[in-house]
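In response to the reviewer comment on reproducibility (Comment 2.3), we provide here a single inverse folding case reported in full, input and output, so that an independent group could reproduce the run without further information from us. The structure tokens appear first.
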């Protein structure tokens, strides 16, 4: 870690110490294979900022309650357990991350038991994915704020009443993102991409195939792209990142692919962007997501079409100095401005409606519900981070 990053972390001043009940799942059913996910990063940031953070894993609680019970019993027992936990812990903040087993009525009961509690939920799937928007709205009426990894006017469609909706950036975490691919010229893999599954014909399938066909001289590692392709998780996933020069940040997207403020994709990315940039890979992203507005045009590479992507990959494979320079700028920037402490500090300041203590690098305005209908698109099922 550079002296600049060390200085930033050591001088960071959090708001008052809070008791936080973090309701999310850390992927225990995957036996630790997804330890680098957003809930882990959020939990780390809250704790490192000096807050007493207790984790309630709704999925694991439901599993424990399901030995002799029906699915309905399991859900009810999980909600009852959360209410008991909140009564015993008496948190200042209840933060829900993809807590799909928690009912709105339980949040209402927590408010009745703890009138001063602040409640928020966050979601890192695209608003176009499955029933992602409906899941947020289901809890939003009992939340003070909701946070999603899409920005702009579309946020007015995920909240109701007085609830505020904010953009949530994907955090990096130096204890997880240890790679420094920009620091080396000789790495085994030129290009990396992994996803849980790619829909036939979408960019996550076609772009890796086009690179392999057009640039056969490159050493590429692609996972989960085609039918029957192997996947990579856990330490092996991080090991592939560490030996890769460049990475594709290809997120799922709706059909049609509407772009810009007001669309379901404005500033959206899965947490893949944090993993790639945070580990020092030169990162390629579709221009339609407008990620350069978050990270700057000199810290990642954007492309419009597959042909443009191939030309850019070919260019940077021949000009390694440029690859390393851009990747290093991106790495330094995200570790300084998008780390887990900064992101969770922002979330709590927004939730508590306090003045921001930092000039954050992303949009910080909030949105409230409006009567006009939000744009709709075909639903997409996500089987990974996007």
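Designed residues, in position order:
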């Amino acid at each position: 870690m550079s002296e600049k990053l060390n200085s930033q972390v050591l001088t960071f001043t959090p708001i008052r110490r809070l008791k936080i009940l973090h309701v999310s799942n850390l992927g225990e059913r995957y036996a630790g294979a997804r330890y680098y996910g957003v809930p882990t990063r959020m939990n780390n940031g809250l704790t490192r900022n000096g807050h007493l953070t207790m984790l309630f894993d709704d999925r694991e609680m439901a599993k424990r309650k399901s030995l002799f019970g029906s699915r309905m019993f399991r859900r009810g027992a999980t909600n009852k357990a959360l209410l008991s936990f909140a009564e015993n812990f008496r948190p200042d903040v209840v933060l829900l991350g993809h807590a799909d087993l928690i009912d709105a009525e339980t949040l209402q009961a927590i408010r009745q038991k703890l009138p001063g509690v602040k409640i928020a939920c966050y979601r890192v799937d695209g608003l176009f994915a499955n029933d992602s928007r409906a899941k947020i709205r289901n809890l939003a009426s009992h939340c003070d704020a909701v946070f999603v990894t899409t920005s702009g006017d579309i946020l007015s469609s995920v909240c109701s009443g007085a609830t505020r909706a904010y953009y949530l950036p994907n955090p990096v975490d130096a204890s997880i993102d240890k790679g420094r691919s920009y620091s080396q010229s000789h790495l085994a893999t030129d290009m990396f991409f992994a996803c849980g599954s790619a829909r036939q014909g979408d960019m996550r399938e076609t772009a890796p195939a086009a690179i392999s066909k057009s640039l056969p001289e490159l050493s590429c590692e692609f996972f989960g792209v085609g039918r029957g392709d192997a996947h990579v998780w856990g330490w092996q996933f991080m090991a592939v990142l560490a030996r890769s020069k460049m990475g594709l940040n290809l997120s799922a997207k709706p059909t049609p692919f509407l772009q810009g403020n007001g669309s379901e994709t404005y500033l959206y990315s899965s947490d893949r962007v944090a993993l790639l940039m945070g580990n020092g890979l030169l990162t390629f992203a579709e221009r339609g997501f407008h990620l350069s507005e978050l990270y700057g045009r000199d810290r990642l590479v954007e492309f419009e079409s597959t042909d443009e992507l191939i030309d850019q990959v070919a260019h940077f494979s021949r000009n390694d100095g440029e690859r390393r320079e851009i990747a290093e700028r991106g790495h330094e920037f995200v570790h300084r401005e998008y780390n887990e402490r900064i992101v969770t500090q922002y979330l709590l300041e927004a939730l508590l409606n306090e003045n921001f203590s930092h000039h954050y690098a992303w949009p910080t305005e909030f949105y409230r519900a409006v009567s006009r209908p939000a744009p709709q698109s075909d639903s997409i099922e996500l089987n990974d981070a996007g």
